[in-house]
Amino acid sequence: MPWLKLFHIAALVVWCGSLLYLPALIRHSLQLRRDAGFAQGAPPMARFVYTSIATPAALLAIFSGTLLFIVHGVMGGWLVLKLMAVVVMVAAHGCFGWLMLRLEQGHFRFVGAATLGALVLALGGIIAVLTLVLAKPLDWS
């Protein structure tokens, strides 16, 4: 089923792209909130990207990836490592959501540093997934 693999790759590209874009949106929202001096509502663009783009793409990527290894019967040592890297990406995704909640509640302390930490976590997961997928043809079974 090449269409399923294409769907999985497309969803993964959108998810990874949004994980790389969210830190910039959160940092921008943080700067706007600090400059305003008054409590404002949710950061609209960061919230939109998180809820309308990143989360659906993550769910579609995970669901289609699960279908891929069930349908094709793919198993191996690399798959466990890849799933661990996906867990790291999910953790980064959750961190970005938590940081947006902190901004909405008016807690600005350590948001900038935590955003950088979540970005490093996301980059680590993305690079690990790409490395493992590209190394898979070496037959790690």
Automatic annotation (TrEMBL):
Question: What is the free-text note on the cofactor?
Answer: Binds 1 heme b (iron(II)-protoporphyrin IX) group per subunit.
**Residues passing through the membrane, by range:** 6-26, 47-71, 77-101, 113-135
Report the cofactors. Answer: heme b
Catalyzed reactions per annotation: protoporphyrinogen IX + 3 A = protoporphyrin IX + 3 AH2
The record's keywords, sorted A to Z, are: Cell membrane, Heme, Iron, Membrane, Metal-binding, Oxidoreductase, Transmembrane, Transmembrane helix
The metabolic or biological pathway listed in the UniProt record of this protein is:
Porphyrin-containing compound metabolism; protoporphyrin-IX biosynthesis; protoporphyrin-IX from protoporphyrinogen-IX: step 1/1
| Entry superkingdom | Bacteria
Record EC number: 1.3.99.-
Quote the subcellular location field of this record. Answer: Cell membrane
Pfam hit, one: UPF0093
The record gives the membrane topology as: Multi-pass membrane protein
Q: Which InterPro entries match?
A: HemJ-like (IPR005265)
Where is this chain primarily localised? membrane
Q: What does this protein do?
A: Catalyzes the oxidation of protoporphyrinogen IX to protoporphyrin IX.
The text of the family note is: Belongs to the HemJ family.
UniProt name for this protein: Protoporphyrinogen IX oxidase
Which source organism does the UniProt entry give? Halomonas dongshanensis
